[in-house]
Amino acid sequence: MHKIAHFSLTGLAAGIAFAAVSSTAQAQEQWTMTTTWPDNLDLIQIDRHWVELVNHLVGDELTIEFRAGGTLMPGTEVFDATQTGSIEAAGDWPGYWAGYSPAFSPLATTTSLFNGVDYLNWIMQWGGWELYQEVYGQYNMVYLPYGITNNESGFRGNTPIESIADLEGKRLRLSGRDQGRVLEQLGGSQVTLAGGEIYQAIERGVVDAAEFSTPGVDYKAGFSEVADYWSVPGWHQSASVFGVMINQDAWDALSEETQETLKIAAEATMAWSLAWSERQSTEGTVKFKEDGTEIHQLSEDDLAEIQDITNEVIVQGACEDPMHAKIYHSMISYLQHYAHWRDISVPYNMSRVIDDLPPLEEIEACM
Question: Based on the domain organization, do 68 and 140 belong to the same domain?
Fold first, then answer.
């Protein structure tokens, strides 16, 4: 009995030692993560929320050191840095990478199509998550969508935009390839500027008007100080998605349990971000009004014309790139499928009812 007990204790000690070594090995996983957002843009709060949640949930297996945008490298360089493994992860807005592939554009936002709930539904239940992996996977990365904001503010400037006729000849700061194409057909011209350059561009008249983000983010960026007029709604970005790019090798080094924890944290942050953004948008709108900002709402006829042009642009883009087509085909299929329930639950439904969708058969013809 003594020998058996001694063997058992020795085996137990070995098991504890092995577990300690394994735990120590896991504890050595330390990531450096940055983002496209500097500290003075409130969108960085979405990145921070996910990092803090991960560091709290994962324990000793992984520690993420987070650095604000611009402190390690320019925001434009985070894609390449994550792809090559110079850093393990970076927060982003997918639309910034449309120069690599137009497929990134609808992964980031849509013109006059998805709202925030549509993106949430599509990502979680209608195949969107897999498409993010397919696109980013071509660049040696895993992607976790973890932020959604509803439609953006609209255009801010020092000349009123009361209708789409007022866009004729205007120079507008605008992000996104599809968005720029719609604007061009409306008579305006797209100006590309980093978020941190918009304040001075409006102040100095470099642009006639500009968009950036939601009212809460825009107010904290100081746009009330330089723009007297606000044109709504934000048709150019009917919702936006943010997330974290993770180097494939860094991801593969994690245990399956830790990978799953990162996914859970992303889903939790995504839900939080939508509510956080809506609260910030409400408070920001109140403050813009208190500061005397004059708001002009586009008519239903104007929005219908924007929708028609948007549909043409979506089909045009689909016929230029198969992956672009695949993503929009998935999005429009979701809207058609969800409509079976959505449309009979009006006015209590959670999503936008769209009667004029891009023609699915024309997109299919380009796939």
Answer: yes
